[in-house]
Amino acid sequence: MHIMLSVVLVLATSLTGVSALPGPLRLANTFSHITNELSHISLGNCSLANASLPLSNLKVGLPEPSLHLTLKYIAVGRGTQNYSCPSTDASSRDKTAPTATGAAATLFDASCIASSSMTLLHELPAVAGRTPLGSLAFMVEMVSSTTNSSDLIIGEHYFDAAGDPFFNLRLGGGDDWMVGKKDASVSAPAKVYAFKIESKDVTWLRLTRKEGKGIKEVYRVMTFEGGAPSTCAGLNDTVIVEYAAEYWFYG
């Protein structure tokens, strides 16, 4: 694993501020600084031996990873949580909560950031979550072209035809993948931001393998937004909520 999108996000944060994303001209100026900074950063295959899953943040904890497993990857996922609302009259929608139907996300390599700074790692979901998807794609293309890297994106996450969460980590050249099932779920810790009172973050999860190769357990932690609206009032039948999160892969 070489240069990562997470590095770009950290640098962008330091140059522009977390809560004020750059417009087109400021974005171009930021990228020129990022390109210069990348030449001073040495990244390679980074050890995750000292990375610690942030379960102590929770009042009610998730189970610890199984003892025989090793942490193989840490990724930042950026995408959408998907929900549905029933096709009923308005009065019924006011009393009905959206139903979760799945998710879709791109998985960006964050292992080298985790090996050097857990604090920076835990800032990435909020930075990625506030960055428009189009800007993230532009960042990836730019850094890939500049560094001749092909593994900025290490995988994708979506739900298969059977409705099971699927993690495909073969985009970065490996052969690991997993079809999972939810083993445990807890509410995300409450967070207060300067620009609003509280974010409605999707739950933290542990998933175990139904089938796959190389990966046996996946944790979704440090989530940023993605939670369902309280009711279906005023919403379409399909509801899409953007989110970001850390994904920890054990095998």
From TrEMBL:
PANTHER family: CONSERVED FUNGAL PROTEIN (AFU_ORTHOLOGUE AFUA_1G14230), MALATE DEHYDROGENASE (AFU_ORTHOLOGUE AFUA_2G13800). This is Malate dehydrogenase. The lineage of its organism: Eukaryota, Fungi, Dikarya, Ascomycota, Pezizomycotina. InterPro entries: DUF3455. Keywords: Signal. Pfam families: DUF3455. It comes from Penicillium atrosanguineum. The keyword Signal applies. The keyword Isomerase does not apply.
